[in-house]
Design a protein that fits this description.
- By secondary structure, the chain is α/β, with parallel strands linked by helices.
- It is 33% helix and 27% strand.
- The chain has 2 domains: 233 residues, P-loop containing nucleotide triphosphate hydrolases (Rossmann fold); 241 residues, P-loop containing nucleotide triphosphate hydrolases (Rossmann fold).
């Protein structure tokens, strides 16, 4: 395979977003007829790089070459016309359309005979063992069958390069094995497959070469997968441990405040997201939840906060069962929640700074049936001052605040309620260095004051820096647990990928 010509060359790719450098001179080369894994932690720049290749983003610097020729894509249609197809994690199918109709959706430049389309789709399905009936409707198909339709969409458009973003995330083990056979047939047919995954056993099983990204940079390029162990791959993904400057002083945890026992729940696709999760949070400790996105973390935080029903199991606070309690009842009982989606769930962007500050406690700021404006503004001013929220008028809509100030307002509102337990989901996502440090210090201060903190984060450095204990989730289950001060980075990386240390 060493002599195989290159299908893809990404050279010195730079892509920036406000406050974030997603790709910093990233390099990637993929051989024709190979399956190439692109690995890295969340935020390493994998998806951005693939979106550059797929024409979703245009790089600010660097160049894209396909089969030796430099190309510039204005949009995904240009990339598809050049032979690059991408299957995203979230399928882009119309449930009420048939398989064949979805395959040709968007091909407005062609005069289509649906009978001929169905025959061609059936031929492609047979050629690559993508067992699916062209005449069935999407809503009738399993998740594995829907993924086959996404692959057929790319094959029907003659894609020579196929990007699969976390392709086994919604598949059963048997379906994942079948997918491995399908992409091997595609590689044998001369096509190139780029396989983005955190599941190292699948990388070892399916892929020929691997490139590892970290912090938007390529740290290891086109390595033969057969020569590497899962341990080595995990070490390359997570890198060396950084200095834990914020590491809280060790202290003895107090009484148990929050307990989750044998918790099960479904995700938005009605698939099992949590399977018999049991954990506890004590007074005066930060319990970190580590894991690759999509392994049940969001569902766990939603169930604890009362935003999602569980199918079985219990949630208790101070020994009292709150499994069926409303979010407001949990809040009044001492449970505060910093959601992952601060604008969509935590705050109301069209309301004022004051309105958002009292959103969880507005009944305490009323005079008769109306809001006592002076009382509400005084409360808001205290939150703004105490948590250093930079804002103009308290009457302005929060849509004008920066991400860091939105998060300070949200955290301040939740902490001002004097909770006993804080559930913080991705509390520093999207913030700059100063914003991250400020939020982490607030959570450490809460811990030092005897509160229990359950922090869910995809940033392993953050968890290693401030957690007293780290629990690793994989495929909706607890894969491992470590004492924060003694946690081994490589072992956590392996557990996140579903491997044993």
């Amino acid at each position: 395979m060493d002599a195989a010509p290159l299908a893809v060359e990404l050279k010195g790719i730079w892509k920036r977003f406000p406050g974030v450098v997603a790709n910093a001179g990233t390099e990637l080369t993929v051989k024709r007829g190979s399956i190439h894994a692109v690995l890295g932690e969340n935020g390493a720049g994998k998806s951005t790089l693939m979106n550059v290749l797929a024409g979703v983003y245009r790089p600010e610097e660097g160049e894209v070459r396909l089969f030796g020729e430099r190309v510039v894509f204005a949009n995904p249609a240009d990339a598809l016309a050049a032979g690059v197809g991408m299957v995203h994690q979230e399928f882009r199918l119309v449930p009420t359309f048939t398989v064949a109709e979805n395959v040709v959706l968007g091909a407005a430049d062609r005069v289509l005979n649906m009978g001929a389309v169905e025959r061609r789709v059936a031929e492609l399905a047979g050629q690559f063992s993508l067992d699916v009936d062209p005449q069935r409707h999407i809503w009738q198909l399993s998740m594995g069958e829907r993924q086959r339709v996404e692959i057929l969409k790319a094959l029907w458009r003659d894609a020579e390069i196929l990007i699969l973003d976390e392709p086994t995330a919604v598949l059963t083990p048997n379906e994942a094995d079948e997918l491995g056979l399908v992409i091997r047939r595609m590689a044998n047919d001369g096509r190139s497959v780029i396989f983005i995954s955190h599941k190292l056993h699948e990388v070892k099983q399916y892929c020929d070469e691997a490139t590892v990204l970290r912090g938007g940079k390529t740290v290891a390029a086109s390595m033969p997968v057969a020569d590497l162990t899962p341990q080595q791959l995990a070490e390359l993904m997570v890198g060396e441990a950084t200095e834990a400057a914020l590491r809280p002083e060790p202290r003895q945890a107090g009484e148990q405040l929050l307990s989750v026992q044998n918790l099960c729940a479904l995700n938005n696709r009605s698939l099992e997201a949590l399977s018999n999760i049991s954990l506890s949070v004590h007074a005066g400790e930060i319990v970190g939840i580590a894991g690759v996105a999509g392994n049940g973390q969001r569902e766990l935080s939603d169930v604890i906060a009362g935003l999602r029903e569980s199918t079985s199991g219990t949630v208790t606070l101070f020994g009292e069962d709150i499994t069926t309690a409303t979010p407001r009842q949990r809040f009044r009982a001492g449970l505060s929640y910093i959601p992952e989606d601060r604008v969509g769930v935590g705050l109301a962007p069209q309301l004022s700074v004051t309105d958002n500050a009292i959103l969880r406690s507005y009944r305490e700021h009323t005079r008769g049936p109306l809001i006592a404006v002076d009382r509400a503004k005084a409360f808001c001013a205290d939150v703004v001052d105490s948590f250093k929220v930079r804002t103009g008028s308290l009457d302005q809509r929060i849509a004008g605040l920066s991400g860091g100030n939105l998060q300070r307002l949200l955290v301040g509102r939740e902490l001002t309620a004097e909770p006993s337990v804080i559930v913080a989901s991705q509390p520093t996502r999207g913030l700059d260095v100063q914003g991250v440090k400020a939020i982490q210090e607030l959570l450490i201060d809460a811990r030092n004051e005897g509160l229990g903190v359950l922090m869910i984060s995809e940033d392993l450095d953050e968890l290693l820096a401030i957690s007293d204990r780290i629990i690793v989730m994989h495929e909706g289950q607890i894969a491992a647990e470590y004492e924060g001060a003694d946690a081994d980075r490589s072992a956590i990386g392996l557990a996140m990928a579903g491997e044993s240390p």
